[in-house]
Amino acid sequence: MQTPLALTTAIAALLSATSVSADALSTCASSATDVCYAIGVPTTTASETTGNMYIQISAPTTYTWVALGMGTQEMAGANMFILYTDGTGNVTVSSRQGTGETTPKYSASTASDIQLMSGSGVTNGKMVANILCTNCKSWSGGSLSTTSTSVAMIGAWKSGASLDSTDPSASISYHDAHTAFDLDLTQATLTTDSNPFTSAATTTTTGSSGVTQAARPDPKVIYAHGLGMALVFVVLYPLGSALMPMLGKWKLHAGFQIVAWLGMWAFFGLGVYGAQVRNLLFNNSHTLFGTVVVCLLAIQPALGQLHHSHFMKTGGRGIVSYVHLWWGRILLVLGTINGGLGFQLTHTSHGWITAYSIIAVVFYLFYAVVKVFTAMRHQRRSGNMGKMMSPRTGYSVERADDEVPMNSYNSQRIVYPGK
């Protein structure tokens, strides 16, 4: 009688069994050393909505863990099987459901019904898991068709010391690398519903008929998106916002911010494309939150124009002015926070996160210092100078707004006698 994997691990029965029968479909990861996978589907399973599937995962014990998943290469909803040593010469396979670009966690409620079969274990520096899965055609996060000629599969691995755990919920580190491929399961048909991994032959190799390596998205797209959006939200927007109180040149301020705004849309487009090809669009907080922030910023140039028009007519701020200012400030902060969510999604190194944080603090402090200094200067001048006389008109003039240059007093509004 087979023992359920979620409760225990099996003792290796045929230690030399590391290969597959001719009917099972197999492949090895080209970017790893002897990390191989195989799948066999009995004819009875292929014709029914449920049934058995046979899976083999093998790898040297120089890997901490190795995984095979049924699903897309970004793991969301994937049915995953993670292999690691149990410390007693046997192996543990943990069934977990992928949740996206995060390390999958074990849950008994979503774990597939699997058993280890004969031939599983550790021998000659290699760990092998021959797995019987009784419900792999459908799971809580998705399903697959055993008659499909293109079933998405993923593999991942982590090099290092053996995990040596019998616990299916053991914590695992983030993978070193991963692969993606499509299987033609019509070529994985088994004539009998029994363990196909029992013949001691040569280890399987890459390039089996029925296996197609999936094209991996170009990482440069995501790098460009991340660096570009960081430049816009952390450097350009704060710097452009400080130009008005620093220099009092509204055309320079507007032109600078429009360039940054257009850059934001370009880098946003790269992010949308990169998320689509990775199946990450609108299924995580970064893409959802980021889309909302960018779309809300769509009206900021129009608000700026309304603010400028009001200022030219009245010489001071109105409601639209404060909407423009605080709309931009709030969305600027939210966009910067969303950059952190992007780092979390892509598992960016701590060095990049630290650099991003330091640069953000520097430019935001710079903007804050400029605004505080401007406000203090205007308050001091207002108290000491009060109203002045215009040398051209003879009418009194007063400070119109704090949106004037820090080194001049060019923006004034006429106050007619008695007004």
Task: Draw up the topology in text.
Layout: E1 25-28, E2 36-42, H1 43-46, E3 53-60, E4 63-70, E5 79-85, E6 91-97, E7 114-116, E8 121-123, E9 126-133, E10 138-139, E11 142-143, E12 151-159, E13 177-183, E14 189-190, E15 211-213, H2 219-247, H3 250-277, H4 285-296, H5 300-314, H6 319-346, H7 350-385, E16 388-389, E17 396-399, E18 412-415
Parallel strand pairs: 2-14
Antiparallel strand pairs: 1-2, 2-3, 3-9, 4-5, 4-12, 5-6, 7-9, 8-9, 10-11, 12-13, 13-15, 16-17, 17-18
**N-C termini distance:** 98 Å
Beta-strand share of residues: 15-25%
What is the overall number of helices?
7
Biggest sheet architecture: 7 strands, mixed
| Count of distinct structural domains | 2
Number of strands: 18
Mean pLDDT: 82
Q: Which regions are unreliable across 5 or more consecutive residues at pLDDT < 50?
A: 1-22, 200-207, 386-402, 408-419
Q: Estimate the helix proportion, in percent.
A: 25-40%
Q: Mind telling me the CATH class of the largest domain?
A: Mainly Alpha
Class based on secondary structure composition and strand pairing: alpha+beta
Organism: Gnomoniopsis smithogilvyi
Keywords: Membrane, Signal, Transmembrane, Transmembrane helix
Signal peptide: 1-22
Protein name: DOMON domain-containing protein
Can you give me a brief rundown of this structure?
By secondary structure, the protein is an alpha+beta fold. 36% of the residues lie in helices and 21% in strands.
Fold and architecture overview:
It is elongated, with a radius of gyration of 31 Å. The strands form four sheets. Strands 1, 2, 3, 7, 8, 9 and 14 form a seven-stranded mixed beta sheet that branches. Strands 6-5-4-12-13-15 form a six-stranded antiparallel beta sheet, with no helix packed on it. 36% of the residues lie in helices and 21% in strands. The chain is of the alpha+beta class and 419 residues long. The chain has helices at 43-46, 219-247, 250-277, 285-296, 300-314, 319-346, 350-385; strands spanning 25-28, 36-42, 53-60, 63-70, 79-85, 91-97, 114-116, 121-123, 126-133, 138-139, 142-143, 151-159, 177-183, 189-190, 211-213, 388-389, 396-399, 412-415. It has two domains: 25-213, Cellobiose dehydrogenase, cytochrome domain (Immunoglobulin-like), CATH 2.60.40.1210; 219-415, Four Helix Bundle (Hemerythrin (Met), subunit A) (Up-down Bundle).
